[in-house]
Amino acid sequence: VTGRTGNVFSIVSGSRSSKTFKPKKNIPEGSHQYELLKHAEATLGSGNLRQAVMLPEGEDLNEWIAVNTVDFFNQINMLYGTITEFCTEASCPVMSAGPRYEYHWADGTNIKKPIKCSAPKYIDYLMTWVQDQLDDETLFPSKIGVPFPKNFMSVAKTILKRLFRVYAHIYHQHFDSVMRLQEEAHLNTSFKHFIFFVQEFNLIDRRELAPLQELIEKLGSKDR
Q1: Looking at the domain assignment, is residue 23 inside a domain?
Q2: What positions does the entry give for Zn(2+) binding (predicted)?
Q3: Which residue range is the domain that position 172 belongs to?
Q4: 169 marked as part of a ligand binding site
Q5: Is residue 214 within a helix (H) or strand (E), and if so which, with residue range?
Q6: What is the pLDDT of residue 172?
Q7: Is residue 18 part of a domain?
Q8: pLDDT tens per residue across span 166-212
Q9: Structural domain contains residue 6
Q10: What Å distances lie between residue 194 and 29, 49, 85, CA to CA?
Q11: What is the count of structural domains for the chain?
């Protein structure tokens, strides 16, 4: 069974000093999904991201998308965890990606009508919601032979669409902090991998990507 690990990202700042961000989601060692994750890491090491995101021969598309979705959740968790002290109720009273894009939270179950909230609150809602989906064995089965549900692809698309918003917020509102921490190369590589992956399988609507369209085009043109 997929378990949560104790490897959490402690946040040492202000009112959140005793709080940790989301725990890392572990893929069980020895499982087929673990082998797929190792394959993904090995092909990433080759430096060809377009090739690295392609479905490995003979593999199940749902399983490939599941493994990578978990990996992106962990990456974004870690990246956001490094800048939480700069993303506060005061600095980010709304969840935005630049002046033209603002996000309101709704999960369709606990909060049905979208609510306006601060970026840290929104991202906390978002990451908690994603983790709940990843921990649901009926949605993300970790055992071999357990089928993915019929709605898996639409759930995965919603997760990735929402994770994109965290990248968009970091780039628009906190890139100066990322640069001060000398993490821009890490952020850019992670985002480029994410974008190439969602483009390969057409997982996020182009309109949703609009807040970072220029950056996406730049990353894509460098790779041709």
Answers
A1: no
A2: 87, 92, 169, 174
A3: 72-221
A4: yes
A5: helix 213-222
A6: 95
A7: no
A8: 999 999 999 999 999 999 999 999 999 999 999 999 999 999 999 99
A9: no
A10: 23, 10, 24
A11: 1
